[in-house]
Every structure is written in C-alpha cells, then in structure tokens.
Design a protein that fits this description.
Blueprint lengths: L7 H14 L3 H34 L7 H7 L10
C-alpha cells in the first residue's frame, strides 16, 4: 500500500472527475499512474533507441532483414508473434 500527497487543486480535480464520471477516485488515480508509467516507459524506450541509432551511425555494421537474421541465428519462422 502506498500513501501519496497531492496538492489540494489536484485532489479537487480528481474528486470532480470522479463525481462527473461516477468512477471511483481509486480507479482514476490508478489509471493516471498507469498512464504516467506507460509514458515513462515509452520515453525510456525512445531514449534507448536513439542511443542505439547514434551508436550505429558512429560504427555501422552489417544490416540484415528480420528474415535474414532469423535464418542466420537459427530461429524458426513460426516463432514470430502474430
């Protein structure tokens, strides 16, 4: 369990949305936190991708299609997710 402090303005906004939508305050706060964490994860993924791209630009190596890489490393084609 986690207790959080929030500004009065933020709490009033959550309370208002809860009243207007009929959704429990708990659900709204959880949804907001989930969205924040998803955005944070997306940001971290984008930063990592930018780092990898920059590294590749500094030192380009061989480029393979997905199919070529799978064949090269012995991964069966049916291993791909739909």
């Amino acid at each position: 369990m986690l207790a959080i402090e929030m500004s009065t303005d933020m709490e009033e906004m959550f309370q208002s949305v809860s009243r207007e939508t009929g959704r429990p305050l708990h659900d709204l706060v959880h949804e907001a936190m989930d969205r924040f964490l998803e955005e944070w994860e997306d940001l971290k993924d984008a930063q990592e991708a930018a780092k990898v791209l920059e590294e590749y630009r500094r030192n380009p190596g061989p480029v393979f299609t997905l199919e070529e890489a799978m064949e090269r490393y012995g991964v069966p084609q049916n291993q791909l997710a739909p």
